[in-house]
Amino acid sequence: MMKRVLISDPLSEDGIRPLLDAEDVETVLNPSMTHEELLEAVSKAEALIVRSQTQVTREVIEHAPHLKVIGRAGVGVDNIDLNAATEHGIIVVNAPDGNTISTAEHTMAMLMSLARNIPQAYHQLKQKRWERKKFVGVELKDKTIGIVGFGRIGREVAHRAKGHRMNVIAFDPFLNEEKAQKAGVKHGTLEDVLKEADFLTVHTPLIEKTKHLINREAIALMKPGARILNCARGGIIEEDALFEAVQSGRIAGAALDVFEEEPATEHPLLDLPEVIATPHLGASTIEAQENVATDVSFDVIELLRGGTVKNPVNLPSVSSEMMEKLSPYFQLSERLGGFLSKVVEGTLERINVYYSGELLDVDTMPLTRIAVKGILKRHIGSRVNDVNAFKTASDKGIVINEQKSTSTKGFTNLVTVEIETDLEKRSIAGTLLNGLGARIVQLDHYSIDVVPEGHLIVIQHTDQPGAIGRVGSLLAEHQMNIATMQVGRTNLGGDAVMVLSVDKEVEKHCQEELAGIADIKHVTCLNL
Ligand SMILES: NC(=O)C1=CN([C@@H]2O[C@H](COP(=O)(O)OP(=O)(O)OC[C@H]3O[C@@H](n4cnc5c(N)ncnc54)[C@H](O)[C@@H]3O)[C@@H](O)[C@H]2O)C=CC1
Ligand SMILES: O=C(O)CCC(=O)C(=O)O
């Protein structure tokens, strides 16, 4: 039977050749539809392929009863509602490798243009003005480029910057000294990178954790006269803060390929002469467009024919037999991973997941994937899923180990997640209690009994009289209602842990005040 594939953004014709040539596929190309036309067209399609322009919202997905796959010809999937797609059993695939080089090259073009004022000088000359004094630039040699996000593109930028004899310092939650040394760059914290960079360039995805990562406070740490580039996603850099910093002269210039809202023709940043910009052209080369269109076309055809895909971004449907046995544990596994990833410090090196009790004889690999996804999600966002969790971990050099254990500690089933980093080893265990739902029953060596949901506060402290009371009073001052509280300790007066569940999200200043209480060593706030 013919399958209809709708392409709603401009794509390379050579790239989509596999689709055009497929006898069982009808390809509908319409890159200039109104919203209403898109809703109508998608209602008849089994596959939708987009670049970054089409916003594949929940509304679009809900209008597409036959849709099986959404293909993103590119990397970032922030224009696709992944939750809505997953809920509707639609698999999302992307093409993460095809535009890496083009985007890295565009970043270098922007870097050089920024250093030498090329766009501004060109603009003057086109207006028949021969200005030379106004456009004195700076050399790249011996300057430091700070790279935030050392993934595919960040690494390629580093290679090229080294070719210009720049010093490279990089920060990425998955980068450690050893990996940095191998890549020939200096490893730093975000703060180190901000402080040392003459040029700062961001190459992270836009996720909750990276939204406004480069904000006023971050910019204040930078050298006066430093320059900033964003060829990743609008929103990673706080635009108002950047505007003020450039206008005041604190930041000497900025090069932007992306904006929080696109198209961005009226953006105030464009009025600043020190800001140079391109209209999201990072991936706009013949090669990249052909690569990403080909990659996504093959995956879409494979999927429509019932095959397996190379670059899945979200969760495909799980077989009903498997679902029955494992689904009760899906949420528990993800939350154990999510919980632990928030409390652990350092660079992830190894994840161990142990199963016991009634899970001994079950294929628990899907649960391990979900636990790993829960851990990695904190750094990578929704691009990591059950399908690609292991690959993502191995790409980051993280070892995954799954084991069955006969030690049940008295529970009928037990899932234990352990993380090893370069600094520490932490673990958490959870169980499903018959009729009572999920419980976290152990955090490191402390026995606790916590429902893994809602707003939780984890406090590591020294077991001293009054510590619990001071926490309770401070939360009351902040109008925070404590729903439950669990305390575990190693020995009288020794290390102890408190886990509180509260009725609303803990604000940053409240967390800071908690951390300032005597005998309290560390405070982590989670939202599960
Ligand atoms: N301007 C354009 O046309 C293009 C823009 N992009 C953007 O570039 C981004 C990066 O692409 P790739 O390098 O292919 O992705 P990638 O997944 O290979 O690398 C992203 C890196 O960011 C790191 N990261 C995540 N959170 C971080 C944080 N808080 N601080 C520091 N690092 C963090 C991740 O660990 C990962 O190593 C994409 O997400 C996309 O939004 C990609 C292609 C074209
Ligand atoms: O389709 C495009 O040109 C945008 C590419 C991009 O931003 C991405 O791949 O994340």
From TrEMBL:
A Gene Ontology molecular function term of the record: NAD binding
Gene3D superfamilies reported for this sequence: 3.30.70.260, D-3-phosphoglycerate dehydrogenase, domain 3, NAD(P)-binding Rossmann-like Domain
Coiled coil segments of this chain: none
UniProt xrefs under SUPFAM superfamilies: ACT-like (SSF55021), Formate/glycerate dehydrogenase catalytic domain-like (SSF52283), NAD(P)-binding Rossmann-fold domains (SSF51735), Serine metabolism enzymes domain (SSF143548)
One GO process term, biological-process aspect: L-serine biosynthetic process
PROSITE patterns: ACT, D_2_HYDROXYACID_DH_1, D_2_HYDROXYACID_DH_2, D_2_HYDROXYACID_DH_3
Keywords: Amino-acid biosynthesis, NAD, Oxidoreductase, Serine biosynthesis
UniProt pathway annotation: Amino-acid biosynthesis; L-serine biosynthesis; L-serine from 3-phospho-D-glycerate: step 1/3
Pfam families for the chain: 2-Hacid_dh, 2-Hacid_dh_C, ACT, PGDH_inter
Documented EC number(s): 1.1.1.95
Family the UniProt entry places it in: Belongs to the D-isomer specific 2-hydroxyacid dehydrogenase family.
NCBIfam families: PGDH (TIGR01327)
Protein name: D-3-phosphoglycerate dehydrogenase
Source organism per UniProt: Halobacillus locisalis
